[in-house]
Amino acid sequence: xxxxxxxxxxxxxxxxxxxxxxxxxxxxxxxxxxxxxxxxxxxxxxxxxxxxxxxxxxxxxxxxxxxxxxxxxxxxxxxxxxxxxxxxxxxxxxxxxxxxxxxxxxxxxxxxxxxxxxxxxxxxxxxxxxxxxxxxxxxxxxxxxxxxxxx
Length: 151
Fold this sequence. Notes:
This protein is an alpha+beta fold. Helices cover 31% and strands 29% of the residues.
């Protein structure tokens, strides 16, 4: 089993790309479906935001952490809820972590849909075998959106 780790964003991503994507998304300009995720800090209690790429798959919605054990992942694990925002539309979502053995088809679809933005974090693409995807699954937390309420 491979341990999950956090792939910290480089300077350009952290200081330029993510803030630009977040600003555009807050204005309602989604980059291929991107949203801004807001989660209360597990220690500070302050709202923390980051751009995410929600995935609609088989009638359900998911959040995948391409960079692994990010702060948003740890905060969601602590609270079980977050806010998703696109422009003025905001929803409170309840999240449940998906077990590793259920991640293969979700990761394959995520890689198919978001390949250009996130493939470098996985080390495989959507054509990877089930075995390869199962091998990397523990490194990439996945959360199912189990309930949502518009705010």
